[in-house]
Automatic annotation (TrEMBL):
It comes from the Bacteria. The keyword 4Fe-4S does not apply. It is a multi-pass membrane protein. The chain crosses the membrane at residues 12-40, 46-67, 79-101, 107-127, 148-166, 172-191, 227-249, 269-285, 297-315, 321-340, 360-382, 388-407. Gene3D superfamilies: MFS general substrate transporter like domains. It is found in: Cell membrane. One of its GO terms (cellular component) is plasma membrane. Pfam families: MFS_1. CDD domains: MFS_MefA_like (cd06173). InterPro entries: MFS, MFS_trans_sf. This is MFS transporter. The keyword Membrane applies.
Length: 432
């Protein structure tokens, strides 16, 4: 295909990808909002609500490694389309059930499991496919637009969900989500997933690896890439230690500082706005030259910001000052999240072999999903028995120390040897 034509096609992919993710994210988040409200209204039980969360997390954790194998060995386009169709069928099934018998908790739990499974197939395979859909120069833009679609959904879905929940019935909610899922399938079916793909072709007479061999080969590949191992290790530690913030933030604002729900909601919105603005910046700005170094600095700033969440428990502030302080904290978190994730995401897209992307990203997905509940449970226990401010401050200090060690200067220079040459050159010029 002519290079000019390929670039035009890549531009089409860029905006189709963004539109598809925006539509499906909005649909999923509005559905999650409605179902959460419905369960709490129907039962008034936090346990039933938590069960729905487990039905969302557990299937993702179990199937992610197998999804990686499939994404590396079969047509990525087919996997994405079939998984999106699976989502549509799960929603349609719940819609028909609700019209025939009314909604029940078992039906909701089964649907949540099915949607979680389908979402894992779509997310891992789409992440593995970005470098095949978009030209190398615009991968950062694609990653930023992906995050932007999630930010738009985070900002808009609670408001839209709240309005719709008070005015329309649950079957109408499900019909809206079903429509969004079908539109996403249509858009994704028009994309060419092999446009820039660099996957090896298997010879007809060549024996194909078994699933187990393929998964072992994926782990061996990760072990051989030292910088990749460090990035994965940092990601896992952040996911675990960030439980201190995820549990502590709500606990401190709602339980300790008695902040009203509408003000708490506004502080949460500031996080999404921070993400959105940085996504916009990365989508239009130049590619980050040293992603690992940028992400390292971003994580250190995240550690400092996480510790700062405890400040109103240590220093007396007026209510208005406290409210403005937490809006600033959440806005900063949103910005820093993008500053950490986008450059590293682009680096991984460009450095990981196309034939291993599915397995590498599925390992990340599995580990992150497995450590999140563990971190949440542990920090839930710690906040019940220890002062909240010290749990946050100690966790933030551990996070900073671990990142300073794992991404120490010698590792950064290993990733970017030119930095060492620059340092030697500056020292030589200083001496002379």
């Amino acid at each position: 295909m002519d290079e000019q034509l390929k670039l035009k096609r890549a531009t089409y992919h860029l905006w189709t990808f963004f539109t598809s993710k925006l539509i499906s994210s909005f649909g999923a988040q509005v559905y999650a909002f409605a179902i959460s409200f419905y369960i709490l209204e129907l039962t008034g039980s936090a346990t039933n609500f938590a069960m729905n969360l487990i039905c969302s997390i557990l299937p993702r954790t179990i199937v992610a490694p197998f999804v990686g194998y499939l994404a590396d060995n079969f047509s990525r386009k087919r996997i994405i389309i079939f998984s999106q169709i699976g989502s549509s069928l799960a929603i349609a099934g719940l819609l028909l059930y609700s019209l025939s018998f009314g909604l029940s908790l078992p039906a909701i739990y089964i649907t949540t499991c099915l949607l979680s499974l389908a979402s894992t197939f779509t997310t891992v395979t789409f992440t593995s496919s970005i470098s095949g859909l978009i030209d190398e120069k615009r991968i950062q833009r694609a990653m930023s637009l992906n995050q932007m679609s999630l930010s738009f959904a985070s900002i808009g879905s609670p408001a839209i969900g709240g309005i719709l929940y008070g005015t329309v019935s649950m079957p109408v909610f499900l019909t809206i989500y079903l429509s969004a899922s079908i539109i996403a399938v249509i858009l994704e079916s028009t994309m060419n997933f092999k446009l820039y793909a660099k996957r090896k072709k298997v010879a007809v007479d060549e024996q194909k690896e078994s699933m187990w061999q393929s998964m072992k080969a994926g782990f061996s590949y990760i072990k051989m890439q030292q910088i990749l191992m460090i990035i994965i290790s940092i990601s896992l530690i952040i996911n675990f230690l960030f439980g201190a913030f995820q549990v502590g933030y709500s606990f401190i604002l709602i339980e300790k500082l008695k902040m009203p729900s509408e003000h708490y909601g506004l502080t949460e919105g500031a996080w999404a706005i921070g993400m959105l603005l940085l996504s916009l910046y990365f989508s239009m700005g130049k590619e980050v030259k040293y992603p690992l170094l940028t992400s390292k600095r971003g994580i250190i700033c995240m550690g400092i910001t996480m510790g700062a969440v405890a400040l109103p428990l240590l220093v007396e502030l007026s209510y208005n000052m406290m409210f403005i302080f937490y809006i600033a904290i959440m806005f900063t978190f949103g910005c820093l999240g993008m500053l950490v994730n986008t450059p590293i995401g682009v680096m991984m897209q460009k450095t990981i072999d196309d034939d291993y992307k599915g397995r590498v990203f599925s390992v990340l997905e599995t580990m992150a999903m497995a450590l999140m509940p563990l971190g949440t449970v542990l920090y839930g226990f710690l906040y019940d028995y220890f002062p909240a401010q010290w749990v946050l401050i100690i966790s933030s200090v551990i996070l900073i120390i671990v990142v300073l060690y794992l991404a120490r200067p010698s590792i950064v220079r290993m990733a970017y040897p030119e930095l060492d040459k620059k340092r030697v050159k500056v020292e030589a010029e200083t001496i002379s």
